[in-house]
Amino acid sequence: MIRAFSLGLLMITILCSCSKEPKKASPVEASSVIQPEDTVKALELEVDEFGLPIASVEIEEHTIERNESLYVIFDKLDFDPQEIYSISEKAKKIIDFKKIRPGQRYRTYFKEDSTEALSHLVWQPNSMEYVVFDWKQDSLNIYKAARPLYTKTEVTSGVINNSLYQTISHAGGSQLLAHKLSQVFAWQIDFFSIRKGDSFKTLYEKKYVDDEFYGTGDVLAAQIEHRGELFRAYYFSEDGVEGYYTEEGESVQKALLKAPFEYDHRISSPFSKNRMHPTLNRRRPHNGVDYAAPRGTPVLSTGDGTVTRAGYYGASGNMIRVKHNKTFETSYLHLNGFASGVHAGARVEQGQVIGYVGTTGRSTGPHLHYEVKRNSRAINPLTMDLPSSESIPDSLMDDFKVVRNAFDRQLNQVQQDTAETDRPVITLNDTFISNDAFDVGRTR
Ligand SMILES: [Zn+2]
């Protein structure tokens, strides 16, 4: 006790001498210099970003090192094994110890009193979340909290020289932004055919914790000029209507047609994980739907896309495969023949006649085997969940226009800025790590 008391006295002495020294040395600056007394007063009211008081405590920043567990951390802080055990018993109800990784930060707060005891420890698994160990009262209290997330909107634009991803990344956007942008336009633009000279502009959200960038948020509006054609999309959400829409309020997402025929046709064999095969006579999954239809019945592409296969493929017979976007692909089997102009690499539109029903390959009679793949996995075309392709209803059209015009103003702002400041247009000449989805002209 006596030792602690004298230490306290010594500290007061140091504080006093400090406060006087600057005044003597430079009286002119004294008024602008924050005096220690004032600092102490201010600190009493002040808290740090975790809401913890920063007065009368010694704060230390640490980084979790390799192989450091909760046990090692508390061992370093001089807790005995029994105490560490009871801390981890309490902590495991709140935190997942597997999330403790090297490089993460934690902060310790030691009381600047005679006890010099640890009053708080804050572990930060990421820049937003944190866990507080609070010994302020006699018993330990552990709680999770998060620093507030701020969203700012930002416009990124560029002229594509090599790939969308590369251009966005040079313009300060993330790979996630490139991905999100390509998802918005997935049903309109074949990103494999993005080429030099195409341009984009996007208004999107960026999330921050204080001033620290936390992550890319949603795309609010975007435009892409592709082969001289301008595509625009605006995010709109109201009364259960949600999605990206064109200037006219039409959904930019197009669902696939329910069936590859103009008229209804009888389903002769449904999608099944385990069906008795009619000619092989053993159980195997049926990855599509069979439609019984007379030979020569026109078969329609169920969505816009690029033909990736049009030819004879053994048991499949004459087959057409269409890639609609990064996610969806459809196949049409046992065809009698192909419509003119349908060959690998050809662009087809939703509802376009691509071939005719036949019985080529392993088939017992004229029928169409129709298959849908989502992310390379066959799904049931009759029950699949597709993005809504509904337009904005008339009742919400006025609201949509307000949103759209506001987004347009923000997008156009950038153009003006660029012109005024004469900022150079992004041009890229270096080669870059190629990302299939965003590369220019690599498909054919
Ligand atoms: Zn089939």
TrEMBL record:
Its cofactor is Zn(2+). CDD domains: M23_peptidase. Keywords: Hydrolase, Metal-binding, Metalloprotease, Protease, Zinc. Residues 272-297 are annotated as: Disordered. Residues 285-381 form the M23ase beta-sheet core domain. It comes from the Bacteria. This is Peptidoglycan DD-metalloendopeptidase family protein. It comes from Fodinibius salicampi.
